[in-house]
Amino acid sequence: MLFGVRRNISTCLGVAAVLVAAQAADRPAYAWQPSKTVEFIVPAGTGGGADQMARMIQGIVQKHSLMDQSMVVINKAGGAGAEGFLDAKGSEGNPHKIIITLSNLFTTPMATKVPFNWKDLTPVSMLALDNFVLWVNASSPYKTAKEYVDAVKAAGPNKFSMAGTGSKQEDQIITAAIEQSTGVKFTYIPFKGGGDVATQLVGNHVNSTVNNPIEAVSHWQAGTLRPLCVFGAEPMPAKQWKDIPTCKASGLDVEYQMLRGIFMPAGATPDQVAYYVNLFKKVAETQDWKDFIDKGAFTPTMMSGDQYKTWLASAEALHKDLMGKAGFLATN
Fold first, then answer.
1. How far apart are CA 17 and CA 12, in angstroms?
2. Inter-residue contact 308 to 126 (CB < 8 Å)
3. If phi over 0 gives left and psi between -120 and 50 gives alpha, with beta otherwise, what is residue 81?
């Protein structure tokens, strides 16, 4: 009887050894990988698009055991994201810190002269391009962008309000572009995060917003908000969003999309960058991520290396032009 027990134990140990070996064989050999908790910096407030994406990534990494170490999301929204960017800039050589970026990567230093530029960091991967939608409260009479702009124009300057995230950031840049294109004038009201912006519109405290889809989708599904048009060059591909016309097709000649990308501090080695590029490729392969992209109407645009750097340089030039036309560039 004892022999049988020993034989069963030996058999179990043998099977366990085979399973461990098989798992090791499936796991790629990294030249470098994190040896402690990775800090995932969000240079924006809670509830907004960047925050939601970072927390979705954190959840996917944990759920699918894509990384041996843990990942913790940290919001550093002060100074229109400057707090987060300066933290990353001051962490040169630290491979256990990554930061998700939005277009404040360009707008914040241009608007404030904060001593930071995207070249102070190490580009890792572009994850997606985020869209902006012109939203009104579902109880309003406006069904199209033209109807809304005509009403704003008829009311006169500053009679209608546009809520957005921050001052001289993406939302206000789009608002300024609408004003330049149509001759209307909004009262722009800034809030700390996209979640707050959507809530203000649901409560009819403002007349409109240019929120990202992910920031307003739950309110749209609840029947409290109405999308009028999307500022991308093409309609959003996801099924639930595809019938929303582009703003250009609606007679509003404004076009804009926003970066959702990952950076590391300066001084990262090629092996460290490669680890994170591979990690985010794995994230993008999960159904959780595909569902998130679909729900939030993102344009999936995975990009890394020189292609990513070239895109960043082009986007920087575009934002300088847009902010210059809006009068948002810092002069001292």
1. 9
2. yes
3. left
Q: How far apart are the C-alpha atoms of 240 and 230, rounded to whole Å? A: 13
First to last CA, the chain: 87
pLDDT single digits (tens) 80-135: 899 999 999 999 999 999 999 988 899 999 999 999 999 999 999 999 999 999 99
Q: Look at residues 272, 104, 147, 129 and name the one whose alpha carbon lies nearest to residue 212.
A: 129
pTM of this prediction? 0.79
Residue ranges, comma separated, of all CATH 3.40.190.10 domains in the chain are: 133-230
Report the length, in residues, of the chain.
Answer: 332
To the question of domain 133-230 being in CATH 3.40.190.10, the answer is yes
Strand order from edge to edge, sheet including 208-209? 187-191, 161-165, 208-209, 133-137, 225-230
User: How far, in Å, CA of 115 to CA of 8, rounded?
Assistant: 66
* Nearest-angstrom CA–CA distance, 312 and 309: 5
CATH of domain 38-130+258-326: 3.40.190.150
